[in-house]
Amino acid sequence: MVIIVAALILGAILGVFIFIPRHPTSGHSKSTHSSANSNKASKIYSKDEVTLHNKRDDCWIIIKNKVYDVTSYVEEHPGGDAILAHAGDDSTEGFYGPQHATRVFDMIDDFYIGDLKQ
Questions:
Q1: Whole-model pTM above 0.70?
Q2: Where does the signal peptide begin and end (predicted)?
């Protein structure tokens, strides 16, 4: 049992370092995709709209009031289905947890689709 847990933890750690983002496949065009730090206009999503995207094949998350379509990453997530725990909801706390290497903070920008309506 201990060996299995250790292997899962090591796999999650190593998986973060070999992450290769794919283009979003949920039907959103590249025009709404931008870096969270860019000056481009962002699409605004309501919390109710984000909540609808709560499945393995349609997964959006909120991190610090920014909306990310991580559907294409769900199957590659080193933590397995942990990414689905907050699908369609705020994942800020989990995203900034100790299980993530600092590199994920740059990678998440690849999935940015807009801002949460305040």
A1: no
A2: none
